[in-house]
Structure formats: structure tokens, C-alpha cells
Amino acid sequence: MLAETICSAVSAAGLGLAAITAYRKRFRTAARIAGYALVPLGLVMTGAVAWLARTAFSPVAWAGFGVLGLAWLLFATTRAVERRRGPGTREERRAARRQAEAPAASTPAAVTGPAERPAGRPAPKRAGAGSGRGGEDDFSDIEAILKKHGI
Description:
Layout: H1 2-23, H2 27-46, H3 48-56, H4 59-85, H5 90-105, H6 108-112, H7 140-148
Helix pairs in contact: 1-2
């Protein structure tokens, strides 16, 4: 009973504020204030306030909210773990990992020695084979990257 009275008083005060705002020729703001002011009155008339008052003082309802919160927490946790690990079962992930490792171990380069280099990558230079400066050739790749980025 008290909640309904408070909601009605809030609605009346809001409508009064909307009337004052409309008097000052700010009609759009007045319409918005009136809309907000009518919400508590609508909640009282639909019975939502009475339901909320009964729910707020019911231990069974609070236990139900606790169970819903626990269910949400479980869903969120399992979703986060699923995103982190990826789809599929543990066995499916292991099989995919083994399949990815198997071709790399059975290549001829691993058995017979180094294979030919791709055309895009030159062979690394040896330390003493360059201009006689030794270790300075090791930084040529880094210099190329820095020049590429304008540094």
C-alpha cells in the first residue's frame, strides 16, 4: 500500500515538473519528463509493484534469484572455457594436434638433410664470408626491416 502511494506521488511530481517545463516552451523535454513520470503509475496499475513487494520479502524468491545467478555463472564460465580451448572434445583436439605434427616429422628434409630454400629467401651469409667485418652482416635483416618501416 505504501509503495503504491509513493509511486503515485512520484508520478504526480513528475507530471507537475513536465507542466512547468512545457510552460517554459521546452516541449520536447516536457514530453520526455512526462513519459518518465508515467512509468511508476503504469507499474502500479499493472500490479508489478505489488508483485515486486511480495517478491522482495520472500526468502523463496531470493533463493530462486540465487539459483538463476548460479545458472548464469555456470553458462558464462563454460562459454569462456569453450572459447579459450576451441570447439570439440579433448580427444578431437589431440587427434588434430597429432595430425598436424605427423607430416612435419615425415618430410624428406628431416631424414636426408637440408632441402632447397624457397626462392624468396636467400641463404644466410656466414660470419667471415662478407666484407671482412664479421658480425656486422648479422644485422642486415634487422636493418632491412627498420628501413622498410621508415625507422
